[in-house]
Amino acid sequence: MSDPNLRKHQSFRSRFLRNARDLVVYLPPGYDDQPRRHFPVLYLHDGQNLFEGSTSFVPGMDWHVGQTADQFIAAGAVEPLLIVGIYNTGKARIREYTPTSVPKLGGGRADRYAKFLIEELKPFIEREYRTLSGPEKTGLGGSSLGGLVSLYLGLKLPNVFGRLAALSPSVWWNQRVMHRFAAAANVNPRPTIWLDIGTREGPRIVQDVEQFRDVLLEKGWQLGHDLYYQRVEGAEHNEAAWALRVGPFLQFLYPVR
User: Fold this and answer.
1) Strand-pair partners of 42
2) Which end of the chain is flanked by fewer CB atoms within 10 Å, N or C?
C-alpha cells in the first residue's frame, strides 16, 4: 500500500462465512498525532473498489475514497473518521450481500454476513484502532448489492449501525423484498440514511428506489433531516459515478458538529 493513510490486513478469516478476505483501513489525517483521540467508523462493502484503481473491479476505476475523505476532512466539512473497506470474495458476493435466495441467482446469506461483521470484524477493528462505539458513531455503506445489504442490516440492527450509505441500492432484489421488509420492520433508533440512484442505471430502477424512499417517509424518516435522497441525472451504475457521491454522502452522514 503506497498511501500512508491506508493499512491493509490480508486474509482476515471468518468462521461464520468459512472464508477469508482482505481489509483496507483508511486512517484520517491526524490519527497518529492524537493518540488519545477516538474516531467514528464507516464500514464499506466491495472494499477492493474503494481506494485503489489497481484492485478494483474495473481496473483503474475506483471510488477515490481516501483522497476525497482527506479533502473533505481538511476543508472542515466532514468529521475525521476511520473507513474500513471490506473486500468481497468474488464468487460469494451475491450470497453474502442478499437477504433472501432467488431462483437462478441464489443468495440469502446476509444474516450470516452480519454475524461476521458484528462478531468478528467489528471487535477486531475496535481492538486494533481507536474507535468510538455506539450506533451514532458506526456506519455501514455500499453500492448496488452492497447498498442493499447496508439497508437491510441497518434497518434490522439499528442498535449497531446508525448511519447508512446506500448508493444505487439493488432494492429490486427478489421482487422488492426490501420494501416489504422495511415496511414491516420496527426500527428504533432510526438510522440516518443516504439514498441515491442514477437515471441511466436501467428501466424501473429509479422508480424502485423512489418507492423505497416513500416507504421510509411513511415510517417517519424526514428528507433533509435523517434521510437524504438524490436522483442523479445521467449517472450510470459504475465506480466512476459512485466516486462523485463519496464527498456528499460523507458530509451528510458525518458532518462536523
Assistant:
1) 83, 139
2) C
Residue of 188, 108, 196 lying closest to 156 (CA atoms): 188
Phi/psi at 10 (5° precision) = -95, 150
Cis ω before 123 (30° cut-off from 0) = no
DSSP letter, residue 223:
B
Q: Give me 113's grid cell.
A: 454476513
pLDDT digits (tens, 9 = 90+) for 114-157: 999 999 999 999 999 999 999 999 999 999 999 999 999 999 99
Handedness of CA 64, 68, 70, 73 (dihedral sign): negative
Provide the β-strand partners of residue 193: 164, 227
Tell me which residue of 237, 241, 193 sits closest to 219, measured CA to CA.
193
C-alpha cell at 52: 485503489
Q: What whole-number distance in Å separates Cα of residue 181 and Cα of residue 169?
A: 15
Neighbours of 157 (CB within 10 A): 18
Structural contact between residues 45 and 150, judged by C-beta atoms closer than 8 angstroms: yes
Average pLDDT on 70-88 reads: 97
Handedness of CA 220, 224, 228, 234 (dihedral sign): positive
Rounded Cα–Cα distance for residues 73 and 151 (Å) = 25
